[in-house]
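The methods section describes the discrete structure representation at length, but only in general terms. An entry of this sort, consisting of the sequence and the corresponding backbone structure tokens, reads as follows:
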Amino acid sequence: MTKNTSTANHHPHVTSPATVDTKHAPRRSPWPLAVVAALFIIIPFIFWYGTWFGRALTNGEIEKYLADESKPRYVQHALSQVAERIARNEPSVERFYPRVLSVSESASTDLRMTAAWVMGEEHKSEEFRAALLRLLNDREPIVRRNAALALVRFGDRRSRPELRDMLRPFTVTAQAEGTIVSALLPGAYVKRDTKLTRLKGKDDAPLDVRSPLAGMVEHTSVKEGDAVRAGDGVAMLAPDADSVWEALRALSVVGASEDLPEVERYAGGVEGMPARIKQQAALTVEAVKRRESQKTLPIDQPSMN
């Protein structure tokens, strides 16, 4: 009689792992993970869509955005939409002009700067011209420069002094008294709002001096440990290529013989500037000389040196 050696495999109380019933086993739902993944996509998209300047706004949205300066990004979005409507010659856009004028007096540098650009798109409005002339005396150089470039659209030669300044180095000054802790070295390229120096002010509070313009640090007037007062120069910025390009193009329209020395310097070639700058400078010199020889002005405006 043969002994059965497989009794254990058929014992009623022993179950093979391969025969475990998984039919009613609980399953992890994929929905929570799917929801989280969707939020990582949807939330950034909603933020981007809400602030994307290319998104068309209704009249009501433009009015709402322009009236609430607590959200500067929204105001800039609305201003860009006003500029587009001006470019399309939409008569209804004039309803927003009072709000644009109001924004041009905002405490925000970015909003005044953007409003100046928009007003340059409508070069038939004498109210806009008056506002731009006021902005030529703004405390912030970026606003003055945008105002000057916008006034060129009006053919207004009173923009010339600021346009010349765009071709020159700019001195950055300290806004408060303190001791220099650190400073960028010459040769560094900076964007607007880049930290140039750090001061240690009263009660050892850190104070940053930030660049009001894009450019290259041409020279620093201070070093670590130096004491400075409000108004003291801390750095000299050489102008960036884009600013020089815009100023040269503008002076080709409104420039006069008094502007030629600065323009001719670029026509002769300036180290670090791309070839297009030298070419545009030469074209500007030619345009100014031709206009001066013909004794004609873009508009009937007095020459402002």
Q: What stands out?
A: The CA atoms of residues 192 and 213 lie 4 Å apart. Strands lie at 170-173, 178-183, 189-190, 195-200, 206-210, 215-220, 227-228, 233-239. The first helix runs from residue 31 to 51. The mean pLDDT is 86.
